[in-house]
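thought: fold this chain, then report.
action: predict
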Amino acid sequence: MKKKCNHNIPETMKHAGPCNIQWEVKKRNGKPNWWCTTHAHEASAPDGTALQSCPGAWFDTQPQPRVIDIDASNGTFSVWGALGAAIEIGTCPRQPGGVHVHHRPSPAAVKDLDDSYDIVRVRGPNGVTVEVDSMAARAFSISELSGKTVTVLTCPKEQCRYEHIDEQKFATHPHVKHQCNRCGRNFREKNPTIGNPLAAAYERLGIARPPEPTTVDRPLHLVSKDYSGIAVWASNRAILTNRTTPEDHGVHVHAWDAAGNLVIDETYSDVFLDGERIDHDALRALTVQRELADGAPIVVLACEQCGVSMISPTSGWIEASTSHTCQACGATTKTRRRVMANPLATKVGGGDV
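observation:
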């Protein structure tokens, strides 16, 4: 299992050029913290010396089909982080890319774009362009599903000034100490925060923020044997949109018929799967847990004190643990290995788990 503090590489930095490896701070063991400022990756060998090239040097540039330009003055669009389904049953086609886009020529028109990309470049009415890459978009959606607010954090190093992305578990809990994605330097904020440059996307593009999402009144009863595949997500608000009407809030469902045709693509209020209602809170937690489990099991775990099926964690960092606090009675249940608990865990999961 990889270290949870390891950074991914922003799509905008892939194939950015030759490595520029240097250090300015030391690790806790006293060895230099070698870092590649070109690809935003650690470049330290086990013995403390610098690598010849960092792991990010081997990433290919993003192919043009996985990059798209959107003009915010032309039609209606919305952009989300493309997270894996929380519940996935049967055969479910998957789209590559971490940024999902909808576009309509006009608000009432049928979608002419419904796809995922690695990088989405949005040009605002003021002429400014904001790049939305997969790393930042997925981190933003994880924060939103965790109920956390993000803000723009800029590395204080004058030669860097990179806008920080708190990803993975760091996107789930405000914290004071941050490690710059670009130069590897640690810096501290006065107040606990979660950094994401997309927090200021509306202001930078000159686009008005949309109304708050509204909960739909649209129930759905699904029988799994009627479909070749079913995928279920907790809905989360768009990272960026120019729509003027509220988004639907609820449970988003895709379902495919026996021929592999997508026959359901909609957001619902209450969803019943084989007669069992899908709990909204558990689904939101499971969507995030699937992204962050990193190989750890997600299990159904009953509280030893009151018997309630637990959702862990309910606060703090979202990561696998051996200690689980019951959301109903507050008692602690221990497990021998690090796991995540969720009442929906017996459903087949998407993502890497």
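thought: worth noting. The mean pLDDT is 90.
final: tokens above.
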